[in-house]
Amino acid sequence: MKRSLFFFFLTILAFPLGVFSEEEESLELIYQKINDLEQEIATLRNLIEENTYLIERYQELQQQRYLDLDKRLHNLLSEEKEDLATEYSNGQQYNSTEEIDLYKGALELFEASRYAEALESFRELIISYPEGAYSADAYFWSGELYLVQQLFEDAREHYLVVVEKFIDHPRVADSLFKLGVLERALMNDQIANSYFSRVISEYPDTGAAELANKSLEASK
To answer: Which residues, at least 6 apart from 119, have a Cβ–Cβ distance to it below 8 Å?
Structure first.
């Protein structure tokens, strides 16, 4: 009888200890979950900040692109076609009226988001007028269309043509910047930063240089 009572009291004394042990384990699990949640929140906060910056930069690029597009369309529509004939250094004169019409039509398709048709028109312009007044622009906008579709090799090829073949063209700065954007998308940060640095050093007074500077700051 005494032995039974002894085990009974021992069981009663051990019961709270077991409860406390379980409670401690539960609290540890809760603290661990809270810690995990805090880390997830910090990660999400960083992603939100990064995405916010990318969205702002994309909006700047869009604004720059469409301001340029509107300006060019306005100029093309307002100028007299007979004054747009271009005479080239080799003495050959192309029918610049047709070239202007083709380029203007491609830009209008681009502005209307008819990208496949716009790309085809730019391709026709490049083939028909390889040394024309708008050939570099056609390569650049083709690169833009490929970049939007994440066809990075095609985009790189077209931007490089502008950089290497039309070295004095205003589109060179934009093309160098877009090469940096392309390499950043491919996680080639060192190459991307080299393009951004080149834009800043060689074309310091351009909108592309401002965007390149922001991109470098974001990568630090």
So the answer is: 142, 145, 146
